[in-house]
């Protein structure tokens, strides 16, 4: 009975450690190509197309998930 209780306590403490653990990683992109020209905001013109009113094309804010 004593060993069973000890095994239970050790198992629960290991599970608690796994649940409370967290990690972070950092990714540094050297280049990101938006081949389809899909913009992150609706106000931006797709790459390669002229603005309908003749204004200069705006800077697209590309995003990814």
UniProtKB/TrEMBL annotation:
Residues 22-65 form the Notch ligand N-terminal domain. One of its GO terms (cellular component) is membrane. InterPro entries: Notch_ligand_N. The keyword Secreted does not apply. The keyword Transmembrane applies. GO terms for biological process: Notch signaling pathway. Residues 1-21 form the signal peptide. Keywords: EGF-like domain, Membrane, Repeat, Signal, Transmembrane, Transmembrane helix. This is DeltaD. It comes from Nothobranchius furzeri (Turquoise killifish).
